[in-house]
Every structure is written in C-alpha cells, then in structure tokens.
Design a protein that fits this description.
Largest sheet: none
Helix content: over 70%
Distance between the termini: 47 Å
Order of helices and strands: HHHH
Shape: elongated
Number of helices: 4
Oligomer: single chain
C-alpha cells in the first residue's frame, strides 16, 4: 500500500472518531512528532555564519588549537 492510500485511509478512520480525547491525543502526537522531525533537520547557514566559522577555524589553526587523529584516539581509549 502506498503512502497516499494509507493517508486517505487514516483520514477516513479519523473522521469516524467521535471521542474528543482520542482526537486530542492524535493532535498531540502529531505535533510532538513534527517537532522531533524539525529538530533533526539541518538548519541552513547564512554566509555570515559560514564565514565566521571559517574565521574561527583559521584562528584555531594559527593558535595551535587542533587535535590530530592519534590524540583523539588516545582520548577515546581513556573513556573506557
């Protein structure tokens, strides 16, 4: 069954619901799930933000605020 057919069947089922508590729970669930999905989606970056990120990265490199993969692996091993 394709998504469009499932949505139509679901809407038909919702239209038959007469209990307001059930409708409220479905609304709450829909809103919660939409918020979760929106939170997981990447947020577009402005050019100003992008340029600021590049400036910070260049400053970190110039000032020795870098880690190489060996240092990171040692730190990860220390977690265990």
């Amino acid at each position: 069954m394709d998504l469009q057919t499932r949505k139509i069947q679901f809407i038909q089922e919702v239209l038959r619901v007469k209990n307001e508590k059930i409708i409220k729970k479905m609304e709450d669930l829909l809103h919660r799930e939409r918020k979760k999905i929106a939170a997981d989606e990447p947020v577009p970056m402005t050019m100003d933000d992008f340029n600021a990120m590049i400036d910070r990265a260049e400053s970190d490199a110039e000032n020795g605020r870098l880690y190489n993969s060996g240092e990171i692996m040692k730190e990860i091993d220390a977690w265990q």
